[in-house]
Amino acid sequence: MEGATRQVLISGDLESQEFDGLAAWLSAWPSVELHAEEATQWVAHFDIILLCAARPGRFSAADVEALRQRNPLAQLIQVFGPWCIGEARTGPVPDGIGRMAWYEWSYRLPDVLAGRSVIPATSSPQEQALASLAEIETGGHPAQVGIVAHTAADFDYLRSACRALGHSAMWLSTEESPQTNDLDALMGVVPGTNGAEFAELGRWFQGTKAATKILCLGAPTWEDWLKAQSCGVTAILGQPFRLADLATLLKPQADCGILPLVNRP
């Protein structure tokens, strides 16, 4: 499938700010033929259907079934906004669709578009987690990762993830002048972007030269992303995160930012 032209339909709340830039990014992707929602009337057999949901219940089971009947082989993926973080737990979420958060599409969609990651959406969460682990490539260039954390538990959590991928990690403090010349990536974990911890981390990130700067947050919002971007953050990982996502972000020269938003005024 890699290299083949993919017919992609994008539908839903594209006017919501968290999806700003997604259509433009898809349009610029090699071998993607992008269609808007109106195309459902005359185009059949899409390869990928992206359903952008800014609020819970945006797409009903009937909506999904109608798309599936017309496109039985399509991969359906819900890209959901901050208000939908708990939707998978509280429901109802239509069966048979994959899900990714609005801040995850920049590092998850490339594999989907290239046909490298096709995990059946009907799989259980456990099966999907195991399948994503099986896709992780190990044995490549080991990255040197600096981790800024305020507690030993947070540091150990991120260090364990890095080590599981074959990378090394060191604990850094924002109170020290960062020596990041030999580091491939920086990671910082804070409880939110409104507290003193993030303000301190943001100033420290701005003073470092590492190309990859990853912020770990729980349930990120659009405002969190804007604040993170302003201090050089290139990607956000929600908590908990997939090990496969961290592996993607730590690849050498990885496309690790939400590219259409990086230069956003």
Descriptive account of the structure:
- The chain is built from 10 helices and 10 strands.
- It has helices at 22-27, 61-70, 87-90, 105-113, 125-134, 152-164, 196-206, 222-230, 243-249, 259-262; strands spanning 6-12, 32-35, 48-53, 75-80, 98-101, 144-148, 168-172, 185-189, 212-217, 235-238.
- It has a 5-stranded parallel beta sheet with strand order 2-1-3-4-5. A 5-stranded parallel beta sheet has the order 7-6-8-9-10, with helices on both faces.
- Strand 4, helix 3 (87-90) and strand 5 form a beta-alpha-beta unit.
- The longest helix has 13 residues, at 152-164.
- The radius of gyration is 19 Å and the shape is elongated.
- The two termini are 36 Å apart.
- The model is unreliable at 253-265 (pLDDT under 50).
Read across the widest sheet, the strand sequence of neighbours is: 2-1-3-4-5
Order of helices and strands: EHEEHEHEHHEHEEHEHEHH
Number of helices: 10
- Name the structural class: alpha/beta
Rg is 19 Å
* Cα-to-Cα separation, first versus last residue: 36 Å
Uncertain residue segments: 253-265
The main sheet comes to: 5 strands, parallel
Mind sketching the topology for me?
Layout (H helix, E strand, L loop, with lengths): L5 E7 L9 H6 L4 E4 L12 E6 L7 H10 L4 E6 L6 H4 L7 E4 L3 H9 L11 H10 L9 E5 L3 H13 L3 E5 L12 E5 L6 H11 L5 E6 L4 H9 L4 E4 L4 H7 L9 H4 L3
Parallel strand pairs: 1-2, 1-3, 3-4, 4-5, 6-7, 6-8, 8-9, 9-10
